[in-house]
Design brief:
mainly alpha, 3-stranded antiparallel sheet, two-stranded antiparallel sheet
């Protein structure tokens, strides 16, 4: 795993950032909600996930297995492939700087109306860079790189979206999942991404002892 570049600031450095000064044009309830969300977020540590090392995955013979989880193929009832989603693979390749101010501003102000259609441009509302913005679910997914514009124009794309899981599976259990990826007991108040990274560091140590060809 490789650490991504990031813009680091202790919380006290961003409290008065102009991006976080929500406009008084907001109604009282919305303004109060944004301020409450920001107050909570300022106390949280923003952990920047490391980028994924595909060279390491190849050396440890995990690349092919991982790719299988990162690609989803939507098929018709007869089994004919109609649409291949590469979204997870694209997300794994994102290596961009992360700015605390933008994260705080976005998460303190974002709202989503699940009753609206995926292409409704008012479904997501948020502030970013001091500007109020709106976009659809599809637009947001395209902006962050999950889908390409051409993919969203495919005649099979609506059926693919309808086939996607939108709720947590009944058999999912966070305690079991956390134990699998960390070897620890899941405690919401103390669960940290750093525990997961320990697992990957161990894999790196193992891979460093594997024989290399060429």
């Amino acid at each position: 795993m490789a650490r991504r570049t990031q813009r680091t600031n202790p919380p006290e450095d961003v409290i008065d950032h102009h991006f976080l000064q929500f406009p008084q044009t907001l109604n009282d309830a919305t303004w109060a909600c944004c301020v409450t969300n920001l107050s909570l977020l300022l106390t949280k540590e923003i952990d920047i996930a490391p980028s994924f090392d595909w060279e390491l995955a190849t050396r440890t013979r995990l690349a092919a297995l991982i790719q299988g989880f990162l690609q989803y193929t939507h098929s018709d009832t007869s089994g004919v492939d109609l649409f291949v989603c590469q979204g997870w693979a694209r997300l794994f390749k994102v290596q961009e700087p992360v700015y605390r101010e933008f994260l705080l501003e976005f998460y303190a102000t974002v709202s989503y109306d699940p009753r609206k259609a995926p292409d409704d441009r008012t479904a997501f509302a948020f502030r970013l860079g001091g500007v109020s913005r709106e976009c659809s679910v599809i637009e947001l997914a395209t902006r962050v790189g999950i889908y390409t514009t051409d993919e969203t124009r495919s005649v099979h794309f609506p059926a693919f979206l309808a086939d996607c899981l939108t709720e947590r599976p009944d058999e999912y259990n966070e305690n079991t999942f956390w134990a699998e990826i960390t070897g620890a007991v899941y405690t919401p108040s103390t669960a940290r991404g750093g525990i997961i990274r320990v697992v990957f560091r161990r894999e790196e140590e193992v891979s460093s002892r594997l024989p290399r060809h060429g």
